[in-house]
Amino acid sequence: MRLLNVLEEIFIPQKVIEEAGCIILPLKNIKIIFINETEIKETKEILKEFILHPGELHALHLARKLNVLFLTDDLEARDAAISQNIEVHGTLGVVILAYKRGLIDKEEAKKSIQQLYWNSSLFLTPFIVEEALRLLE
């Protein structure tokens, strides 16, 4: 979770918290944002070709509205973000960014990437892992 400190501000829609059913750790850079259903209508219409959960729609709406980075490891949500020219990164991108900004050293970054490959439910191919490791050079 400390890797999230690499980002100055993290905006999380209330809908994401509700869907995940989790409590957010008290990091100073996290802001929970409520978005009402009226506000989200335009985003739903624009992204109707994508199969997205309500939390993903709310997060994409917020990324569009605030012109901020969108974090997701969901391929459909990533494609939706790209279709709207929203900069998108996943967990690997956060690890690489944390390394490049000096929050973690190269060995910790490599270990994190390898653990994501072997121990997480993320769909990572050997090629993607090799590319991520190459970006640490």
Structural summary, described in words:
The protein is mainly alpha-helical. It has two domains: 2-89, Rossmann fold (3-Layer(aba) Sandwich); 94-134, no CATH class. Helix 1 (14-20) links the parallel strand 1 (10-13) and strand 2 (30-33). Helix 6 (106-119) packs antiparallel against helix 7. It is globular and about 45 Å long. It has seven helices and four strands. Helix content is 53%, strand content 9%. The model has no long low-confidence stretch (mean pLDDT 89). It has helices at 14-20, 37-46, 54-66, 75-83, 91-100, 106-119, 126-134; strands spanning 10-13, 30-33, 70-71, 88-89.
Count the domains: 2
Q: Average pLDDT value?
A: 89
Helix count from the secondary structure assignment: 7
How much strand content do the residues show? 5-15%
Q: Tell me the series of helices and strands, N- to C-terminal.
A: EHEHHEHEHHH
Query: Which structural class best describes the helix and strand composition?
Result: mainly alpha
Radius of gyration: 16 Å
Report the CATH C-level class of the largest domain: Alpha Beta
Number of strands: 4
Helix coverage percent: 40-55%
Q: What is the global morphology?
A: globular
Outline the biggest β-sheet.
2 strands, parallel
Overview in brief:
The chain is mainly alpha-helical. It has seven helices and four strands.
